[in-house]
């Protein structure tokens, strides 16, 4: 880990923390999800930099050592993609390979829609492309399909989830998120709350060390969870603002990787969309879909060597 350099870069009106390793002619931009940091990519950064790539992983807006504006309206995908384009400009990179996971995958899909000229190829994990449905706002649709206690719906009210998270040790809460292997929908009734779930006994998985959990906990204890939760609170605003891109396909080469126990893969309708033609229709340059067996949501940390190899096998073609 001491090989990885850290710096603060001014982009798009904020100060962004960036981790970087390697000096190859081709660069890879890694985009993390919730509740993660640049650190989620530590294995891939070291592996791919050793193969001759320049690996770049920022803490996204609202996370870690990057600035966290207070308002959810400052966390639209236009802000986040703007941050990343600004980062590439500051680093002097015209085009990069992109690797995304969870919310980072969502941001990567939008980056490919808004600025495909900046992306050589994309390896995305966990969250498939979700084409904009012009018939209704996403949060209302989720409430209708999954109920008010669905975690995305529970995250909508500013301050509410933060208050629940504050009732439990941050390390315990993060371990609950990271080590969860239940592929069912994440539904958290208010009567139970996130704090009660986090206090349930949970075994540290073999792929996650106490030091890893401490690092995550130290950063989230300092920064809080509001920045990450604001991504969820901007979902409907993203829907409103992205109307001009309705129906637009993803036109960069793509490889998609998901675990068979991932909650996203087991969301009703997801497998059918991924495997029965819908995904390929919306992402015509989709070249490969990989489903890793007995693997849950945080795939890049749970199966680091395999994921690194899958990334390398794909991007070395270009």
Task: Explain what this protein looks like in three dimensions.
InterPro entries: AB_hydrolase_1 (IPR000073), AB_hydrolase_fold (IPR029058), Epox_hydrolase-like (IPR000639). The chain has one domain (5-315): Rossmann fold (3-Layer(aba) Sandwich). It is built from 15 helices and eight strands. It is of the alpha/beta class. An eight-stranded mixed sheet has the order 1-2-4-3-5-6-7-8, sandwiched between helices.
Summarize it.
The chain has 15 helices and eight strands. With 318 residues, the protein is α/β, with parallel strands linked by helices. The mean pLDDT is 96.
Shape: globular
Please state the average pLDDT score.
96
Strand tally:
8
CATH superfamily: Alpha/Beta hydrolase fold, catalytic domain
Give Rg in angstroms.
18 Å
Order of helices and strands: EEEHEHEHEHHHHHHHHEHHEHH
CATH architecture term: 3-Layer(aba) Sandwich
**Subunit arrangement of the protein:** single chain
Describe the largest sheet. 8 strands, mixed
Number of domains: 1
Adjacency order of strands in the biggest sheet: 1-2-4-3-5-6-7-8
Into which percent range does the helicity of residues fall?
A: 25-40%
Percentage of residues in strands: 15-25%
Fold-level CATH name: Rossmann fold
Helical region count? 15
The end-to-end span amounts to 28 Å
Q: What structural class do the secondary elements suggest?
A: alpha/beta
- What's the level 1 CATH class? Alpha Beta
> Uncertain runs with pLDDT below 50, 5 residues or more?
none
Family: Belongs to the AB hydrolase superfamily. Epoxide hydrolase family.
Protein name: soluble epoxide hydrolase
Keywords: Hydrolase
GO molecular function: epoxide hydrolase activity
